[in-house]
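In the lab's daily routine, each protein ends up as an entry in a very long ledger. A line of letters takes care of the sequence, but it says nothing directly about the fold. The three-dimensional part falls to structure tokens, numbers that each stand for a local backbone shape. The outcome of that step, for a single protein, is printed below.
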Amino acid sequence: MLPDTRTQTPSFAAAAFWALYGQPFDGAHLLLMSRDNRQINAYRYGTQPGERDYLAPGGALAEK
């Protein structure tokens, strides 16, 4: 887990998600956005369209 990446503000959460999305992590890393202890968005680094946990760059993020 990366420290200082928690927020209660959706707009900051989306900005942080996209900032981290572009980082050079490998497939062992999962970028997860949750709300009320439930997954709402996820991206596994290195995935391709059609694979689980793939999210296209700039794609729509769920809010709930």
Q: What stands out?
A: The mean pLDDT is 87. The first helix runs from residue 10 to 21. The two ends are 22 Å apart (CA to CA).
